[in-house]
Amino acid sequence: METLQTLRILSCKPYLNPAETSRNLVVVRQVGFGSLWRRSTYRSLSLRRSVEDRKEGGFRSSQDGSSTLEDDKGGLLLGTERDDSGSVVGFQLIPPSGEGKVIEIHDDQATDREEVIKDVEREDKIPTRVTRNIVFVTSEAAPYSKTGGLGDVCGSLPIALAARGHRVMVVSPRYLRGDPSDKIFANAVDLECLVKVYCFGGVQEVSFFHEYRAGVDWVFVDHPSYHRPGNPYGDSFGAFGDNQFRFALLCHAACEAPLVLPLGGFTYGQNSLFLVNDWHAGLVPVLLAAKYRPYGVYKDARSILVIHNLAHQGVEPAATYDNLGLPPEWYGALEWVFPTWARTHALDTGEAVNVLKGAIVTADRILTVSQGYSWEITSADGGYGLHELLSSRKSILNGITNGIDVTEWDPSLDKHIASHYTIHDLSGKVQCKIALQKELGLPIRPDCPLIGFIGRLDFQKGIDIILSATPELMQDDVQFVMLGSGERQYEDWMRAMESVNRNKFRGWVGFNVPISHRITAGCDILLMPSRFEPCGLNQLYAMRYGTVPVVHGTGGLRDTVENYNPYAQEGLGEGTGWTFSPLSRESMLAALKNAIGTYREHKSSWERLMKRGMEEDYTWDKAAVQYEQVFEWAFIDPPYVK
Ligand SMILES: Nc1ncnc2c1ncn2[C@@H]1O[C@H](COP(=O)(O)OP(=O)(O)O[C@H]2O[C@H](CO)[C@@H](O)[C@H](O)[C@H]2O)[C@@H](O)[C@H]1O
User: Where is each Starch synthase catalytic domain found (predicted)?
Assistant: First the structure.
């Protein structure tokens, strides 16, 4: 039997939150509950507003018992939204224009989920349908903290979602390094809300700082363990020994934040949707299931685990479980036993706790940052020991390719680069190249192919392949610039390479955002021989800047870089870069040779390559629509662990 579900959504207009009038609210009426959705028709919703209603104004009782009020702009306030504890979390408003949408949903339509995503993409001009209270939990969020792509994503996706009408909070630590960089937190005010967290053998006290910027509530958890020099995870001596403690605190605090922080006058409440990023936030879904739901709290909340990098899982000795503030019977969720070959000695039982595993078994849905990677992590090669578990949850696993912050990364406006340019006038790009050569002390040669690399110097990024291929590459008439920090052996190698190839090689050891922009703009080719790459952002930045990527065909790199075919389109060519495979010195050098040859010999083909890359749509809007679809799926199903 076909059941017709009706979801009425009145398009977003002013959100009458007395404290934050800039936000949007969508009124949602749902009749029945479906398991699969299909949007079939949209039509305007006619609003019945009697003259009497309009004259009287003020709160009045409607048939269903909710109160209504005409707002001062002529819209109609239907009533208040409350969370389970009775706190008012918003008002429901029918906008004065009477614009609205009706969505009919048939719950027995066997709709392909990918099709739904595509369908939503096509309709991306339609305003947000259902708005959520979203809580990002992350160890980094740019510009406040960033060591890599996680910071970029958690600094820009929340803004894109807020712009679509969601109420968005980002919870991350308030890292203070005791140097001038601390001024980034200057606008975050102390909310004077202390929360006691029971873990690590005692009571830990955390507090919260808050900044409302770009439509997002940026919430910083404060604790002395976040105040030290170095980056979020370690310093020149290596990873901090208390990272399990620091990020467990973050998770406990993040679970409390929607309940206790009256941001803009209202808490986010118990129906929040947690977006849990990587292992550092991985205790959140476990805490929801083990610590809150048994006591009736967060029964209607949902959590989505976003995996940016499966290689890091937060694994610690089994004995540390007691520190985490979880009931003993939940040990199995985090239990992890290393295979025999990975154990260190004969008496090593391999028993450990794995925070990311805990998140995988308790989250309502799982996302990765590209479709290719979402498949790879279910394979033995890409699953880092978790492939069987991830395969068992395949039905709730999706991949959504990252977007980028197109305002920060815009060659026509970028404040870090020497000259601006656009797809219509590329002349500024060569100026950027000359300026970069000058800045780095390389011979100024606008016609010499300039290759760049930006990234963490570790196994993931295929630095060993670069290292083995560079002597041969240096035989050619090219220049090569590398920016990165990480493993000491690679940093030392970069310095050594520079000293023997003064006219051709520069190795910038360190983390420097302005230089990364200048390399992206100034180079002709960006090299990314990543062993695995969940999405990769540098190739997206490069293409937007007309810099042609040469990448290993893996994960998000394969999804986002289209291999160049010079013969397609009647000789006009097709593609945005080179994807090589397998990952070897030889195939990387062959792809580079092709790229360099095209750059030198086929100038017009090269320009078309650059322009095709620059034309691509890298905005977050596309991804945000897909995220919204996954949010809906998360709320359609009951919580995975009730
Ligand atoms: N030395 C340096 N100086 C200045 N800037 C530097 C730098 N080293 C790196 N960066 C910057 O850090 C970011 C790196 O982002 P990536 O997505 O390429 O990789 P990362 O592995 O960190 O991210 C993980 O998460 C992201 C986000 O989901 C995924 O895209 C990716 O595949 C996954 O490995 C870029 O903004 C880059 O410019």
Answer: 133-391
